[in-house]
Amino acid sequence: MRPEEYLRIILRRWWLVPIIAIVAAVVAYGYTAGQPSVYSSSTVLAVTAEPLDQQNDIAAKNRLAPLKPIIASGEVASRAARHPELQPYGLDAGTILGKLAVAHSPDTNTIQIAASDSDPRRAAAIVNAVAAAFIGYINEDNARLQQLFPRFTQNGTPIVLPDGSLAPIIRLNIAQLGMAGPASQPSAPRPKLNAAAGAIFGVALALVIASALEYLDDTLRTPEEVRRHLGLTVLGGVPKKSRGS
């Protein structure tokens, strides 16, 4: 088909486009508006390495990706479930993991912990509890490293930290950059956005339906269609009867 033929199909059944688009938008809006509101809360953890030098900074960057599965592990989730901030909600480790999302940024040496829930306060409590549980886990890991891999001076003497413990070869420090708070606005659902998407889908569907109807309709309406489809010359025609005649 030539481009003008597609345009002719659309103009012939133009009424399908607004009707189907409006219906699709209304259905999408109504369905989305009926869904429960979901609130998201998040926090950022900064990861640094001791002693502070370029080599250890690179080591910290390389450990960001392996740290993500630890945050989303049953061990950290179980610790978070026992956190005082989460105990009033009675959540188990599986429920916490189902609401959790973890991402990392090697450029800034940070890890983002986010949670979504129908209760904005509970979402914030999940984030803070998981962050606290993860920091506690890393601190315990650092303590084990201090015993297994202490750092020595050039003369072979172990380096002792101000608190009296042995300094490990590389120690990861995790700091939470601000406590997560309850969101004031839901992150989902988005009825207006889904209604716009529904309208776009409706327009596309209307064009498909119009094309299908045109394909199934074998009526020849104009002399041009007769010449194109039958290869015949139109010798005459019956004029369309006007309403006044």
Please state how the strands of the largest beta sheet are arranged side by side.
2-3-1-4
As a percent range, the share of strand residues is 5-15%
Termini, distance in Å?
Answer: 37 Å
> Approximately how much helix is present in the residues?
40-55%
Low-pLDDT windows of residues: none
The number of helical runs is 9
H/E element sequence = HHEHHHHEEHEHH
Q: How many domains, as an integer?
A: 2
Rounded to the nearest angstrom, the radius of gyration is: 33 Å
User: What class would the helix/strand composition place it in?
Assistant: alpha+beta
Choose one word for the global shape: elongated
Largest sheet, in brief, is: 4 strands, antiparallel
Tell me the total number of β-strands.
4
How confident is the prediction overall: mean pLDDT? Answer: 81
Short description:
This protein is α+β, with helices and mostly antiparallel strands. 50% of the residues lie in helices and 13% in strands.
Q: What does it look like?
A:
- By secondary structure, the chain is an alpha+beta fold.
- The protein has 9 helices and 4 strands.
- It has a 4-stranded antiparallel beta sheet with strand order 2-3-1-4.
- The protein is elongated.
- The protein starts with a helix and ends in a 15-residue tail after the last helix.
- The model has no long low-confidence stretch (mean pLDDT 81).
